[in-house]
Amino acid sequence: MESWVKVQKATFERWVNSHLSKRQLQVVDLFDDFRDGVRLCFLIEMLTHGSIGRVNKFPRHHQHRIENCQLALSKVIADGVKLVNIGPEDIEGGNEKLTLGLTWSIILKYQISSVISDKGNKSPGQWLLEWLQAKLQPKGLRPKNLTKDWNDGTMLPALVDAIAPGLFPDWDALPKDQAVPNITQAMHLAQDWLGVHILLLPQDMADPTVDEKSMMTYLYQFVSCTLAPGAPIGNHKAINSGNVRVYGPALEDDVHLNVETRFFVDATKAGQGTIGLSFGGPSKPKVDVRSKPGQPQEVVLTCDKAGDYDVVIQFDGKEIPHSPVRIHVCPAPIDASQVKVANLGPNCYPGQINNFQIDGSKAGGTGYLEIGIVGPTQPANQIFVEHLGDFKFACKFVVVEKGNFLCNVKWHGEHVPGSPFALVGQV
What we know:
The chain has 12 helices and 18 strands. With about 425 residues, the protein is an alpha+beta fold.
């Protein structure tokens, strides 16, 4: 996958999830999770604040998925979005670049266009750049683009303080060689007090090849953001220029489920005192704190449930500036080879209910399960799937003829071990 595709895909996934989370839904893989059209339809409904029609919430067949995708596209087109060479078959088929194109069109229509005032003949990119220049001009900064000028970690902290004066008062005292930590701190301040979602990873913004559409998706949030009550205006001291500094991969990138990660708490310039940590989140993480005299404290952790974990950090009994910090744990990567199928075959019995079980608890993803049973002359006429929780399923099916059958079981579009399963219909 090309680097720009990878960054844009991840940014768009976070943008989509910022809306779907209101329905307790999420996408793990944009290309895969839009294929059945369910989350795509729900996203459009969230953005348009209304129903778009009858959505097949459990599409088991190709045609059902196509119909869902068409329902979403029809609403987008009706709202004035011009889709060039993008059809429901492209989305259902997981076409990467066309799925990205559709998502960008949705962002342009329902996020960017909704906050632009007096656009005139300017492109969305030009309008945003001029708006940012006007905001940053009092800080003595004038970005010439939406990409490279944001790499050094100066622009974003300045923008945060420009939007909310006093929220990041010492932005201009940040270490010049710490672009990623500086951007990280600014992103967390913007998320905590301005409601600006972290859609783009700090290291991606610091990359000279950063994707412009990803930058626009993130930065356009500042146009309509508002300051939350209780914000530490005027008395906030940046971690990087203060006595305690917090940094590391756990805070700068998404963390995967059951994968060890780490961050560092540097209090070497804070005098005598003890570092205190407390964790809040979906579960209690496994934590190993490693300390050496005169060196930053290393915090190694592993989380067994996906979600957001807040870490409260104290020094000498007092909470440090910008605490708590947030760690986002993603679901495990999709791996169909970890799906277990039990009690399926080799025999099945016409006219009776045949039962089997599927365990996808260790396979990652969001439970996108497909089951199809094909017989000598016709498919099974009834297939029932019940989710038991933790991505475990109880399955039932009924066939009406004798002979040889094939049962296809797929997890997020990939055959599970043993699929297709050979069955023999016997009386």
